[in-house]
Amino acid sequence: MHVYFAHCACTCLISIDDTSDQSKVGSKSISSSNPSTVKSGSTRSSWTVPSYKESRELPTPRTEGEILSSPNLKAFSFGDLKASSKNFRSDSLIGEGGFGYVFKGWIDEQTLTPSKPGSGMVVAIKKLKPEGFQGHKEWLTEVDYLGQLHHENLVKLIGYCSDGDNRLLVYEFMPKGSLENHLFRRGADPLSWGIRLKVAIGAAKGLSFLHDAENQVIYRDFKASNILLDSEFNAKLSDFGLAKAGPTGDRTHVSTQVMGTRGYAAPEYIATGRLSVKADVYSFGVVLLELLTGRRALDKSKPSSEQNLVEWARPYLRDKRRLYRIMDSKLGGQYPKKGAHAVAGIALQCIGINSKERPAMSEVVEKLEQLQDSKYNVAAPQVDTRRSSSSGSVPRSPMKAQPSPRRLSGSASPLPAAVGSPAAVGSPLPACRTAQVH
Ligand SMILES: Nc1ncnc2c1ncn2[C@@H]1O[C@H](COP(=O)(O)OP(=O)(O)OP(=O)(O)O)[C@@H](O)[C@H]1O
Ligand SMILES: [Mg+2]
């Protein structure tokens, strides 16, 4: 077995073995029919976006034809989407990921036909790079799940386009973009503590909804770039291309091809291919650390002992007196000490090595919501800012340099050596996506 990683913009899919993949979605249907021949909803003359009504209906395996004829989704023609995004012009571009580009477009709210830029409803159009089977499979999985799952913390899929080799997805537009951009993009306004907590709660609720659905869903790609924000910083999960049906009966996991993003993927999942909801809980813990520290899950630009966020941060999470050392300097010390310590404690549980001991997402939601109570939110600053970090811009309360946390024992590998897979040990990779093993 060998592993290779194909470069792309920001995430890494890791694959060690495909033989045991129990995928219920996509695999059967992909080979069964040509998407462009499937009945298209584009002939409908009138179509409205379904309103938010929680829906927990979930897929039993469906054929591609069944998936694409979902009554909740509009089938767009390529020409329509081209027209609604000004020919996919660069000034309509709002983002790029490993699988494609995201453009801003405008459509009529009632008919969902292209409208003049600036009028009607704004949408985000993801145009997949033409890349064959894997891209198509993920596209179809996304259509399958988001065509059926509706919740205020999941991004709304309005429709799709399957036209020749073109595969596109049309989503509600999320005006504040991704959490990743807010936390890490140079020049971005710092997020306050209150907003960070709000985002964490929204994202946790999205995961909790998936995990507690009658037919459980494992999200598998929880990370800052997949958390999108509306104008009020309500968080919604996007990118369901890697989502997987959870185990049934007494089973605790499903065996799958290992896919996900370096730095976020749970070590036991990478090592064994056994996927459970607790892998999502681990990834959630990593995002909590990103929110606390303002550091990326994996950062190759840092000294090797600091590249992997989990390894770097773990020793600081338990101790109230040491936590301030790793807090995001962009908070300017404006956070409640007690609340930060509590979030650190939750993160520590989520990134626990023993997956069974990690909390359920519903518990995480409950604990995080408690932190919005005044008890934990007594007026900031609660910290000794004299010893905090200065590595980022601190607009309102300039501070002196934070000593870099002391060198940690352990390697820079994204995974603890004891549980690391051959695919992962000793290879601190940037958070970039796509890998396969043959
Ligand atoms: N519905 C949306 N509304 C507004 N912006 C969006 C929307 N969907 C995506 N974006 C923007 O486009 C960017 C790229 O998204 P995309 O999902 O393609 O890639 P990614 O999440 O960054 O990486 P990956 O390919 O690993 O998922 C996002 O980070 C976000 O800024
Ligand atoms: Mg994404």
TrEMBL record:
Enzyme class, first EC level, given as a word: transferase
Low complexity compositional bias, start-end: 24-40, 388-398
Molecular function in Gene Ontology: ATP binding; protein serine/threonine kinase activity
A Gene Ontology biological process term: defense response
Lineage per the UniProt record: Eukaryota, Viridiplantae, Streptophyta, Embryophyta, Tracheophyta
Biased composition (Basic and acidic residues): 53-65
Name of the featured protein: non-specific serine/threonine protein kinase
EC id: 2.7.11.1
Record has Transcription as a keyword: no
Location of region: Disordered: 24-66, 376-438
Keyword terms: ATP-binding, Kinase, Nucleotide-binding, Plant defense, Serine/threonine-protein kinase, Transferase
Family, as annotated: Belongs to the protein kinase superfamily.
Binding site for ATP: K127
Positions of the Protein kinase domain: 88-371
Domain of life: Eukaryota
